[in-house]
Amino acid sequence: MIRAARALPPLLLAAALLTGCGTERAGSGTSADRAAPAAQAELASRAKALGIAPELVYATRAPGFTLAQQSVGVQGDDGFSAAYTDRTGAVIHLYTDRPRTAGQHAYEVTKKGCVVWLEGEGGVSGAVLGQALRAVHRPTAGELDTLLPAPDPAFTDGEPVRRGDLPTNGDGGPPDNSVPTPGL
Asked: How far apart are CA 73 and CA 50, in angstroms?
């Protein structure tokens, strides 16, 4: 009984501390703010940092699929591409580009000067692709951080990153591209 009485205060303290956990919301603003369209200036800044035309950035939704953030990149000259995966390994690829000739892809839609098409991999059904195609939309404020993370300031000044941990000569040093003089 005495041991239980001694353990009670730390347990109550732990419960009190845990009660405050989880009260902070991820992101900024209310859920209605996060569902609102992304700010065009912010979207443009992030897209241009990746070489993507801001007007070609689109997202989609499909039950059970989530964005594979590392898949986000440039499609063609300045289009957009992203992949959405599910727990079984199935993939929905989303691609955008400027309109050329419509109807080249089975799951394609034209949106304000942009062609968006989807391709499935790993057993994605036509029904799921059709549902994802109907859900194609401009990114919301809540999707922007995942879809196009803010650029790292270290990489936006146009200069390569200076590591500082590489030796100045020998293995790992700058290459010696000099041409030896014949006969010396």
From this structure: 7
Q: What is the pLDDT along the chain (184 residues), one digit of tens a residue?
A: 555 555 545 544 444 433 333 333 333 344 445 677 788 899 998 999 889 999 999 999 999 999 999 999 999 999 999 999 999 999 999 999 998 866 789 999 999 889 999 999 999 999 999 999 999 999 998 899 889 987 766 655 555 556 666 666 666 666 667 888 887 6
Distances (CA, A) of 167 to 69, 77, 88, 131, 170: 34, 37, 45, 54, 7
Show the tokens assigned to 94.
């989303």
Tokens of 111: 């949106």
Distance CA 54, CA 79 (A): 9
Name the token pair of 156: 């936006």
Q: Hey, what are 149's tokens? A: 């993370």
